[in-house]
Write a structure and sequence with these properties.
This protein has 6 helices and 7 strands. It is an alpha+beta fold and 192 residues long. The C terminus is likely disordered.
Amino acid sequence: LFFSSNFQNSKVIDIEQECLQRVEEYGFQINSYIDSFGQLESAIVANEELMLLLLNQNKPLSLDQILSFKENVDSILRFTLVTPKIYGIRLFVENNNIPEYWPLILNSSRLIFSNPDKWEYNYVADFMGNLGQYTVSSLCLTRPLVFQSRSLGKLQISMKMKDFFSFLYTEHESHINNYVFMNKNDRFLPIT
């Protein structure tokens, strides 16, 4: 009886430690993704040439400005190649003189979700129409796009839900899935 009780306590402690380790790993993974969102946002806002073009309210862009605009937009699109988990980057601009450049530069009237600085889960970019690869359920952060204290629109960065929360979409070994812990008398007990 004593051996059985010690064995059970030992197993509970092992399972508890394994779960705590996994939670720490998942937390680290999520925080690294959040950091990539912040780094992308900083890199985009630091592109002063693009921000000045978006700020141009006076007249339609000249040919040189359009070429510069295209070059800057293409450089931002390359971010998605070096950060493959990033699913979408979109700038919803308020300036009607700026042409849309799909899938990155869109008119602010297309923005469905407009609550900045909030994470939105299971976001689907329905406005992307026939671009089916952009209509997968994702986690998205939409922030105000501000340059020189002036609002330019919104910046939206997204990642597929199955990438951001990969551990929720991964099939684990059965002993990991079959345990639920509850705190009873300061002990964690497995319930299968």
